[in-house]
Design a protein that fits this description.
This protein is of the alpha+beta class. It has helices at residues 14-26, 41-54, 75-86, 106-110, 116-119, 134-145, 175-179, 191-197, and strands at residues 5-10, 31-36, 61-63, 96-98, 169-172. The protein is built from 8 helices and 5 strands, in the order βαβαβαβαααβαα.
Length: 201
């Protein structure tokens, strides 16, 4: 039920580029390809894709997916449903909603109130690692080995987080006028953090 697909070819090989172009030619305008002659990293790639989508009259809403994301069959319908509910309290130009990866344990976190500290990396961390978190991490590892589960809290599927990844992010086109495009100077790593922080600051 997606109206248009914009694919960013971020400096791929010649053979891959041919395949992507073949998809575009056979899709009767449904797929649009942006070809970048060099790899601009995730920041440059997403900047190009979001920029194209924000200028597209058919793209009222923008749903970002990474090259390794495989959404569940009902993911988009669920996002739209929850987005409409949240729009009652937050204007669309300031709202983003995100579908998280089940494999990373986000479903369990969403059921445990106040647990986003374990979901999102803290300050002074790199790729979720901080020296001061080692004791707590060891305890959680032991509890996991012992099959001790965290107590279930709210059954809501919605969890407020301070920032998130590009993959799965859903927002209204008007948000780009408010927050701008990703900063290509990041190239890769934490460019999505900087971009999504705009929605919560």
């Amino acid at each position: 039920k997606v109206g248009k697909v914009i694919v960013v070819d971020n400096g791929s090989s010649v053979e891959t580029r041919k395949g992507i172009r073949g998809l575009e030619q056979n899709a009767s305008g449904w797929i649009s390809v942006i070809t970048l002659t060099e790899n601009l990293g995730s920041a440059g790639g997403y900047r190009a894709g979001i920029g194209r989508a924000s200028a597209c009259s058919e793209c009222t809403y923008i749903w970002l997916l990474d090259d390794d994301n495989v959404p569940a069959e009902d993911a988009l319908l669920t996002l739209e449903e929850d987005y409409r509910k949240l729009c009652r309290a937050t204007p669309p130009e300031r709202l983003a909603i995100l579908c998280m990866r089940e494999a990373q344990g986000f479903r369990d976190f969403a059921r445990t109130p106040g647990s986003f500290e374990r979901l999102m990396p803290g300050s002074s961390s790199f790729l979720f690692f901080r020296v001061q978190d080692l004791p707590g991490g060891l305890i959680r590892l032991m509890l996991k080995k012992l099959k001790v589960l965290y107590p279930a809290g709210s059954s809501s599927r919605l969890l407020t987080v301070p920032y998130g990844p590009y993959g799965g992010l859903f927002f209204h086109q008007s948000a780009i006028s408010t927050f701008g495009l990703p900063d290509e100077r990041f190239f890769v790593y934490f460019d999505d953090t900087a971009f999504t922080l705009g929605f919560t600051l």
